[in-house]
Amino acid sequence: MNSVYQLKPRFQAALRPIAARLAHAGVSADAITTTAAAASIALGVSVAASQWRWLLLLYPVFLLVRMALNAIDGMVAREFSGPTPRGALLNELGDMASDAALYLPLALILPAQPWLVVAVVTVSLIGEAAGIAAQTIGATRRYDGPLGKSDRAVLFSLLAVLAALDVPAFGGWLPYVLGIALALAVWTVVNRVRTGLVEAAR
């Protein structure tokens, strides 16, 4: 299933010079990971606490920067400092915490039933857990779509901007969009479990 994640190699190639400069400056992969997670949590808490719609306009740029930092920390770890168990755990937990912090507050603002937003985020996090769990049975970390981390970033960025601009009729069709997103999130869990089992059986 096609996913925005498939663009990652080209995205990484564009960011590799930045990763090299940061590594040579002594910036660790863990510091980059922690910075991305802390900034995500700060924005999510601000949205939840204030419910200021103008903050939603920050989502597209912020999520693009967050994806860049996530790519850079991986390159710094793999290509310069060397990966570590602590870094791997920090990366996975930081990503999941960031997703929860950024997307759950939208349940308070988007013009749809809050449970729909919560359900999409919850099932998406289960999908990430399924991708990680594949490693416990001898498979690789699974990133199968159709609603991976990058796809969710695109989806929620678009929804955040539309909500901030109060686009007419947005609330009318938003529940259907979230329903489709929930189905895609479930499909993602199934895909990751299935492909993990197939890979482990080889």
Strand-residue proportion: under 5%
Order of helices and strands: HHHHHHH
Structural class by SSE content: mainly alpha
Number of strands: 0
Unreliable residue stretches? none
| Overall average residue pLDDT | 93
Which of globular, elongated, flat, extended, rod-shaped describes the shape? Answer: globular
Main beta-sheet strand count, sense and barrel state: none
In DSSP terms (H or I, runs of 4 or more residues), the helix count works out at 7
Q: How many angstroms separate the termini? A: 21 Å
Task: Please estimate the helix content.
Answer: over 70%
Give the C-alpha Rg. Answer: 17 Å
Keywords: Membrane, Transferase, Transmembrane, Transmembrane helix
Enzyme class: transferase
Transmembrane segments: 54-72, 112-133, 153-170
Protein name: CDP-alcohol phosphatidyltransferase family protein
Gist of the model:
This protein is mainly alpha-helical.
Structural account:
The protein is an all-alpha fold and 202 residues long. The radius of gyration is 17 Å and the shape is globular. It has seven helices and no strands. Helix 2 (29-50) runs parallel beside helix 4. It has helices spanning 8-24, 29-50, 59-81, 85-103, 114-133, 149-164, 170-201. Helices cover 74% and strands 0% of the residues. The two termini are 21 Å apart.
